[in-house]
Amino acid sequence: MSLLLGFLFLLSLHPPRCSAATDTVSLSHALAGSDRLVSNNSKFVLGFFKIDSKNYSYANPNSYLGIWYNKLPMLTPLWSANGENPVVDPVSPELTISSDGNMVILDKATKSIIWSTHVNTTTNDTIAVLLNDGNLVLRSSLNSSMVFWQSFDYLTDNLFANAKIGWNKVTGLNRRLVSRKNSINQAAGLYSLEFDINGIGHLVWNSSVIYWSSGDWNGQFFGSAPEMFGATIPNFTFINNDREVYLIYTLKNEQLKVRAAIDVNGRGLAGVWLEGLQDWLINYRMPLLHCDVYATCGPFTVCNDDNDPFCDCMKGFSIRSPKDWELDDRSGGCMRNTPLNCGITMNKTGLTDKFYNVQSIRLPHNAMNIQTAASKDQCSEVCLSNCSCTAYSYGKGGCSVWHEELYDVRQQSEASANGNGETLYIRLAAIEVQSVEKKKKSRTIIGVAIGAGAAALCLVILLLMCWRKKIWFDRRAENAQGSIGIIAFRYIDLQRATRNFSEKLGGGSFGSVFKGYLSDSVTIAVKRLDGARQGEKQFRAEVNSIGIIQHINLVKLIGFCCEGDKKLLVYEYMPNRSLDVHLFKADDEGLDWNHRYEIAIGVARGLAYLHDSCRDCIIHCDIKPENILLDAYFVPKIADFGMAKVLGREFSHALTTMRGTIGYLAPEWISGTVITSKVDVYSFGMVLFEIISGRRNSSQEYLKDGDHSAYFPMQVARQLLNGGISNLVDAKLNGDANLEEVERVCKVACWCIQDSEFDRPTMGEVVQFLEGLLELKMPPLPRLLNVITGGSNSISLLPIDLK
Ligand SMILES: *[C@@H]1O[C@H](CO)[C@@H](O)[C@H](O)[C@H]1NC(C)=O
Ligand SMILES: *[C@@H]1O[C@H](CO)[C@@H](O)[C@H](O)[C@H]1NC(C)=O
Ligand SMILES: *[C@@H]1O[C@H](CO)[C@@H](O)[C@H](O)[C@H]1NC(C)=O
Ligand SMILES: *[C@@H]1O[C@H](CO)[C@@H](O)[C@H](O)[C@H]1NC(C)=O
Ligand SMILES: *[C@@H]1O[C@H](CO)[C@@H](O)[C@H](O)[C@H]1NC(C)=O
Ligand SMILES: *[C@@H]1O[C@H](CO)[C@@H](O)[C@H](O)[C@H]1NC(C)=O
Ligand SMILES: *[C@@H]1O[C@H](CO)[C@@H](O)[C@H](O)[C@H]1NC(C)=O
Ligand SMILES: *[C@@H]1O[C@H](CO)[C@@H](O)[C@H](O)[C@H]1NC(C)=O
Ligand SMILES: *[C@@H]1O[C@H](CO)[C@@H](O)[C@H](O)[C@H]1NC(C)=O
Q1: How does residue 649 score in pLDDT terms, banded at 50, 70 and 90?
Q2: Which pLDDT does position 674 carry in this prediction?
Q3: Reaction catalysed (predicted)?
Q4: Ligand 5 atom 13: the closest Cα is on which residue?
C-alpha cells in the first residue's frame, strides 16, 4: 500500500507531460534519453531503462531500449531491443528514424549507430509506433498496413498477448522466447522456449538439450500443460497449417497486466498483476523444481531444491564467478581448486588422482558406457587412464564414465533415494580427497563425544523420574457431581492430577493442554481455557450440552471445572497425540496409507455427525491436524468441537487472533459473508491435501519467492487432469498407496476447497465419496482466491478482518 501511495505521490510531482505522452517516433520527433512513448491506451511504455542494481554489490552501467507496463511500482521489462549492444554510461542515447528509414539508437554525442532495425524500407516516410498491445512497429506514416519491422517478430523473454510464438514456414522466421543473461543484463541467456516445426513446444538449453516438452495440442491444451484447459484469463489459440505454426493468446479483459515468460533460471512462468496486492501473482511454473531445468547450476555443481540456495559446488570445486551467481547467472558453474595430476602417477608427493564419492544423486548427462569394465575397480582404472575423464559410476547399468564438464547432477531426497539415487565417483587431485577425508573423521569423533554425553544425561533423567514415581498422585476425584455422566472437578483436584500443570501436551488458540493422572490407570488431558468470560451457570449449561454429544470420532469430554475465572475441560487422553505430529515431523516414519485413509474417513464421519446428526448443528470452525487426535489404535478423534459454545461471545475474538491456522480458513472468513458448516468442509479439504502430501500446504517449499504455482492444492488439481497423481503422494510412503483411494481423496479435497460454498459437498456427501458409495466428477481447477488465502506469505498483504 505504501508503495502505491508513494507511486501516486511521484506521479503528482511529475504531472503528465502532454507533449511526451505520444506513441510515435518520427524523423521530426526523436526520443531522447529520459523520454517515453506511451501506447494510446496507456498500458505500455517504451523508453530507455536501466535495472536497479541497488540489491547487488555491482554497479550497472548498461541501459536498454525496452517496453514495460505503465504505472507499475516496479520495473518489469517485457521486451528489450539492444540486449547485446547496451548503451553504456555515460553515453546519452537517442531513438530516431535514420535516413534509410530504419529505426536506430544513436549515441547522441557522436551520432554513431548503437542498434538498428536493419530492414529495407520501400517508402521514405517511416515512423515507429507503440501499439496498444505492446507491439512496436516500423511502418509507413501514410499506409498503416505497410509494416517493415515489428517487435513481436523479435520477442525477448516475454510473450505478449496477441503475439505469436512459432514458425512462419514460408519465410523461416522462428519466433521464440530466450531467457536473459542475468538479473540485470538483458543479453540473451542459454535457455529458450520454442516450437518445433511440428508444433510441439520445448524448453531448450543452449539450443541443444531439451528439458521439457509440451506434448501435442489436442484442440484445447497441450498434453503436458493441462492448466491451459479452461484457463479463465487468457484465451489460447493454436494454429498449424502449411504457412504457419504458432500459439497465441488473447485477454478477455484488455486492462489486465499479465506475464508469460522464461526466467533467468530457465523456468517458464505465467502470472497476473494484482492491484490489491501491488505485486505479481505467479500462478504457473514449468518446471516446478529448479533442478528439473537442465544444467541450471552450471558444470561441476550439485542441484538440490531442498536447499536455499539450491546450487552448490561439488567437493573440491569453487564458484567460477561469484559476481554472476549473485545475479542468478550460474552458467559458469564451478571450477577445480587443484588441477588434476592426470598421467603423472608418481611425482614428488607420490600421489595420483583419487575419487571422491557422492551418494544418492541423479547421474550427470551424457554418460559414456564402458562395456569392457566388469568391476568397479576396472571402471575406476578406465577413468584414471584418460586425462579428460572426470568421473565414473558403477551400478545397475555397468560402468559409465564422463569426460570434461559434469552437468545436471542432482541430489535426490533421502526418501526417494532408495529407488533411484546412485553413487558418482568424482575425480579429484589426491590432496583434495585427503582434506575432505580428514574433515569427515574429525566430525565423527566430535559426534561420538556428544552422543556419549547425551546418553549419560538421559540416564540421569530416567533415574530421577523413576525416583519421583514413588510420590505418584493416586487419588480419585471424589467430589464428582455431574448431572449426566460428566464429572464436575474441583480445581485443586485437577491441579494435583496434572502435578500443578507441569506436563504440557500442547497449546492452542483457546488455552493450554496438560497431561494428568486420575489414577495409575486413567490418564486425562486437561485443557485450561484462556478466553472464557461466560457466567458460571451458562458455562455449565453449555458444557453439559456438549457432554451429551458422543461419537467414536469425537474426543470424549470426561468433565470440567468452573471456579471463578478458572475454567477447565477434562478429556480422555490420546496416547498417539495429534495428526500433525505424524504427518509433518521428519524423524517420524509417518502413517501408512491405510491409516491415513481411515483417518480421513473417520474425521469426515465425526464432522458429518457434528453438522447433521446432533441436536443443533455445531460448526467446528477450526479443523486442522492439531485438532485431530489419535487414540491407541490411530482412530481419529476431533478435539475442540463446541468451543464456540463454551467460549461464548469471546469466541469471535479468539478467532481473529488465530493466525496460525490461516491456511485452513475458507474465503468466507475474509469476504465477511455468513459462516455456515461449509467452512469446516473447506478446512477438511485442506487437511486432506496434507494427508496426501505429508507436508503443510503452507510449507515454504511450495511458496518460494511469493510464487504460488507450486502450491500443493494447485498441483493436485493439475495432476488430476494430467493423470499423474502418483507423484503427489508423500515420498515417505515409498509408493505404497492405493492409487484409486488416493485419486478419490484428491478429488474430494479439490471439491472441498472450491471458492463458492455452494460448490462444496456437505460432510455427509464427503463420507459417501470417500467410502466409494458416490462417484465424483472431475473438480475444476482452484481459482486465484484459493491460492491467496492459502499462502502464508501473501496473507499479511490482505486486509483480513474476521470480525
Ligand atoms: C487513441 O484513443 C482515443 C480514445 O481513447 C481515440 O479517440 C483515438 O482515435 C486513438 N488514437 C489512435 C491513433 O488510435
Ligand atoms: C531488493 O531487496 C529488497 C529487500 O531485500 C527486496 O524487498 C526487493 O524486492 C529487492 N528488489 C529487487 C529488484 O530484487
Ligand atoms: C535489402 O536489400 C539488399 C539489396 O537489395 C539485399 O541484399 C538485402 O538482402 C535486403 N535485406 C533484407 C533484410 O531484405
Ligand atoms: C519521399 O519520396 C517522394 C517520392 O517518392 C518525394 O516526393 C518526397 O519529397 C520524399 N519525401 C521526403 C521527406 O524525402
Ligand atoms: C497499403 O499497403 C498495402 C500493403 O502494402 C497495400 O496492399 C495497400 O494497397 C496500400 N493502401 C494504400 C491506400 O496505398
Ligand atoms: C553452447 O553451445 C555453443 C555451440 O553450440 C558452445 O560453443 C558453447 O560452449 C555452449 N555453451 C555452454 C555453456 O556449454
Ligand atoms: C478466443 O480467441 C479466438 C481467436 O483469437 C476467438 O475466435 C474466440 O472466440 C475466443 N474465445 C473466447 C471464449 O473468447
Ligand atoms: C605432484 O602432485 C601435487 C599434488 O597434486 C602437485 O601439486 C604437484 O605439482 C605435482 N608435482 C609434479 C612434479 O608434477
Ligand atoms: C580420452 O577420452 C576421450 C573421449 O572419449 C577421447 O577422445 C580421447 O582420445 C581419450 N584420450 C586418450 C589418451 O585415450
Answers
A1: very low
A2: 63
A3: L-seryl-[protein] + ATP = O-phospho-L-seryl-[protein] + ADP + H(+); L-threonyl-[protein] + ATP = O-phospho-L-threonyl-[protein] + ADP + H(+)
A4: 143
Q: Which residues are annotated as a binding site for ATP?
A: 527
The per-residue pLDDT of the chain, averaged, comes to: 79
Q: Is 798 in the pocket of ligand 3 (CB under 6 A)?
A: no
Side chain identity, residue 730: D
Mean pLDDT, rounded, for 386-391: 90
403 lines ligand 9 (CB under 6 A): yes
Cell output for 778: 472431475
Our answer on whether the CB atom of 119 is closer than 6 Å to any ligand 3 atom is yes
Compute, in angstroms, the gap from residue 226 CA to the centroid of ligand 7. Answer: 18
Distance CA 620, CA 611 (A): 9
- Residue 705 backbone dihedrals phi, psi, to 5 degrees: 55, 35
Query: Above 60 in pLDDT, residue 285?
Result: yes
Q: Using an 8 Å Cβ cutoff, are 776 and 744 in contact?
A: yes
- Which has more pLDDT, 794 or 108? 108
Phi, psi for residue 395 in degrees, rounded to 5 = -150, -145
Which cell numbers in the block locate residue 256? 489486465
Beta pairing, strands 31-32 & 566-572: unpaired
What is the pLDDT averaged over residues 130-140? Answer: 96
Q: Which domains does the chain have, with CATH numbers?
A: 1-154 (2.90.10.10), 165-288 (2.90.10), 301-436 (no CATH), 472-572 (3.30.200.20), 579-789 (1.10.510.10)
Q: What is the DSSP code (8-state) at residue 707?
A: B
CA of 54 to the centre of ligand 7 (A): 43
- CA 620/CA 606 separation, integer angstroms: 11
Instruction: Give the confidence band of 417 by pLDDT, cuts at 50, 70, 90.
Output: very low
Q: Which residues line ligand 6 (CB under 6 A)?
A: 206, 331
Confidence of residue 163 (pLDDT cuts 50, 70, 90): very high
Residue-wise DSSP of 240-261: ESSSEEEEEEEESSTT--EEEE
What is the pTM for the complete model shown?
0.63
Active-site residue flag, 622: yes
How confident is the model over 595-645, as pLDDT tens digits? 999 999 999 999 998 888 766 677 887 788 988 999 988 999 998 887 766
Residue 95 Cα to ligand 6 middle (Å) = 33
Distance in angstroms (rounded) separating the CA atoms of residues 664 and 642:
18
What's the 3-state SS for 392-431?
EEEECCEEEEEECCCCCCEECCHHHHHHHCEEEEEEECHH
Task: Judge whether 559 and 489 are in contact, CB under 8 Å.
Answer: yes
Question: Catalytic one among 292, 622, 640, 730?
Answer: 622
CB 55 near ligand 2, within 6 Å: yes
CA of 207 relative to ligand 6 center, distance in Å: 9
Going by pLDDT thresholds of 50, 70 and 90, the confidence category of residue 205 is: very high
Within 10 Å of residue 186's Cβ, how many Cβ atoms?
25
For ligand 6, atom 3, name the residue with the nearest CA. Answer: 206
